Amino acid sequence: MVERNLVNVLLLGGGFMLIFTSFQTLGNIEQTIIDSIKKDLPSFAGDGYTSLAIIYAALSLSNWVTPSVLSAIGPRLAMVIGAITYCLFMASFFVPHVALLYGCSVVLGAGAALIWTGQGMYLSQCSSGDTISRNSGIFWAMLQMSMFFGNLLVFFTFQGKTHIDETTRSIVFAVLIAVGIVGLVFLTCLRRPSTSGDAPVELSHSVEPRQAFLNAIRLFQTPRMILLSITFVYTGLSLSFFSGVYGSSIGFTNAIGTSAKQYVGLNGVFIGVGEVLGGVAFGLLGTRTTTRWGRDPIVIAGGVLHMAAYFLIYLNLPNAAPFGNTDALSYIQPPSALVAMGCSFLLGLGDACFNTQCYSMLGGVFKSQPAEAFSIFKFTQSVAAAASFVYSSYCGLHVQLLILVALGIVGTITFCVVEFAVKRERPALERDYEK
C-alpha cells in the first residue's frame, strides 16, 4: 500500500536525519576541532581536509562495487552496515591519532558508499513514477533537518571560545555519537517496500554481483549519464565547500570578532534552513512542478542562488580564510556576519534545488537500474568532493570560488540538456510505465 511505503520513506528520512546530524556537524567543525587538538597535543599531525578527502576518495572507489554488494545483501542491510561505520568514525575522535583518524576515514568512505547507494535503491523501491518527486523532497527535507540540531549544539557549546578545549570537545563527540546510534536503530526498523497497489519501482535481486558491476559500467558510458555526471561533479564540489571549507573560513576570519568560532555552528543552521525549505517546497510541489514545467527551472534557480552566494562570499571573506586564523580583510570591511549567514542560507537552498532534482531524475528516468544509477551519482560526486578537499589545502578562497562558478554554470546547462531530452520522451516513458 502507498501508506506503508510512505512510512518507510519517513523512517528512512528520520534515520538519515539523525545519523547526519552527527556526521555533518562533525564535518562542518572538523578542521576547527583538529586545529584546537593540535594546540593541546602538538604530536598530533592530523588534518581535517585530508581526512575528508580520504573519506570521499574511498567512497568514490567503493561505489563501483556497491551495486554488486547490494545485489547480494539488499539495501536495508547495506544501510545498517554503512551507519555503523559513521558511528565508528565519530568515536575515533576520542583518541586523537593520525593513523586511527585516516584509517577510520577509509572505513567510513566504504560505509558511505553502502548507505547512500542503499538509500537511493530503497527510495526507488518505495516510489512510483507519480511519487518519486514527492518522496525525494520529503527525504531531502528530513535529511537536511540534521543541519539544525547538531549545529545548534555547536553554537551554544562554542560560545565565547577561541580555543575548543578537551572537555567541550568530549561533550560534543559524546552527544553526536549517541544521536548517530539512535539513527542506526531507525534504519533497522525499515520494512520491505510494498509491491501492491500503485506498484513501486522494482529491482530484481537475481542479478549476479558481476553483472551488476558490468551494468554500472555500461550505464556510466551512456551519453545521458555522461552529461549528468558533470552536474554530479558540481554538486560534489559545492558539497565539500559548504560542508567543510566555508564554515572553517568563517571561523578563521578574526575580523568577524570573538564570536567567529561560534558562527561556524550558526552557519550550519542557516545552511539547514535553506536545505529544508527547498526540500519541503519541492517535496510538496514536486509532482506538480515536474509534470507542468519539468526539473530544469528548479535547477536553474539553484544555479542562480549559488552564483549570488559565491559573489557575496568573495566580497565578504579574505582569500586566506580557508588556511587558518587570519587578520586579512576582503572588500566588505569589517566582514559581515549577517552577510556570511545569508550566504549560508543561499548555499543550502541552492543545494536543495540541485539534489532534489538529481534524486528525482535518477529515481524516475533510471528506475530500472536504481542501484547502478545512484552508485554512479555518488561516485562522481565523491571524486569531486575528494578533489575539492585536496585543493582546498593549497588554493585560496578566491580560486575555489572561481572553480565553483565555472562548474556550476556548466553543470546547470548539462542537466537542462538531459531534462529537455526527457521531456521529449515523457509520453513514451509514461506508456511504458503503465504497461
| Radius of gyration over all CA atoms, rounded | 21 Å
Level-2 CATH architecture of the largest domain: Up-down Bundle
Shape: globular
Count of discrete structural domains? 2
Distance between the termini: 19 Å
**How big a fraction of the residues is strand?**
under 5%
Largest sheet: none
Count the E strands. 0
Please name the CATH topology of the largest domain.
Growth Hormone, Chain: A
**Secondary structure: helix percent:** over 70%
Can you identify the CATH superfamily of the largest domain? Answer: MFS general substrate transporter like domains
Poorly predicted runs: 197-206, 429-435
Structural class: mainly alpha
CATH C-level class of the largest domain is Mainly Alpha
Tally of contiguous helical segments? 16
H/E topology pattern: HHHHHHHHHHHHHHHH
Q: What's the mean pLDDT score? A: 82
Keywords: Glycoprotein, Membrane, Transmembrane, Transmembrane helix
InterPro entries: Ion_channel_UNC-93, MFS_trans_sf, UNC-93-like_regulator
Transmembrane segments: 7-26, 46-65, 77-94, 100-117, 138-158, 170-190, 225-246, 266-286, 298-317, 400-422
Subcellular location: Membrane
Key attributes of the depicted protein:
435 residues; mainly alpha; Growth Hormone, Chain: A; 2 domains; 16 helices
